[in-house]
Design a protein that fits this description.
about 170 residues, alpha+beta, Alpha-Beta Plaits, 4-stranded antiparallel β-sheet, 4 strands
Length: about 170
């Protein structure tokens, strides 16, 4: 019976199949044309979120970064609405999301970045920095000089007033 269930999984569309737990963290940023109304923009974002959740992914965060000027002209537009989706999904879900971003007319640009590798790299750097403190930041202490210093000024301070009164 288990063999039959596995065969049924392969009949589903590729992005809806249940695969081994290979969910990774991704950030998907896309730019929507500036002439799109807010209601349409909300509907568009909800559709992309639905694609992720239908495929078995999880939406971690959705941020509308607002309308910003583009660095260069893209499809005859100089500015656009920026949206950032943080998702946890497998590769097939991300591929389906990118396909939908590509064919959706109001989306003029998109990029997907895998963040779990970035997180791993940052934690490695943090642990390395914590283990190796900067030598210039640590105070320099000389054992012989620190013992002699407190004794010498006290002796000089006592002797000076005696010479000034005589």
């Amino acid at each position: 019976m288990k063999d039959f269930v596995d065969r049924r999984e392969w009949l589903k569309p590729k992005f809806q199949r249940k695969e081994r737990n290979m969910d990774r963290l991704y950030e998907v940023m896309f730019i929507v044309r500036p002439d799109v109304v807010d209601e349409e923009l909300d509907k568009l974002v909800a559709g992309f979120e639905g694609t992720v959740t239908t495929g078995g992914g999880v939406i971690k965060a959705t941020e509308k970064l607002g309308r910003r000027k583009l660095a260069y002209t893209v499809r005859k537009f100089n500015d656009g609405n920026y949206i950032l989706l943080t998702i946890e999904a497998n590769g097939t879900v991300v591929a389906e999301l990118e396909r939908r971003l590509r064919v959706t007319e109001p989306v003029i640009k998109y990029i997907t970045v895998r963040m779990d590798e970035e997180e791993k790299r940052l934690t490695k750097i943090r642990t390395h920095r914590a283990a190796h403190q900067k030598r210039s930041a640590a105070p320099v202490v000389h054992a012989a000089a620190s013992v002699a210093e407190p004794v010498a000024p006290a002796a000089v301070a006592v002797e000076e007033p005696a010479e000034a009164t005589a």
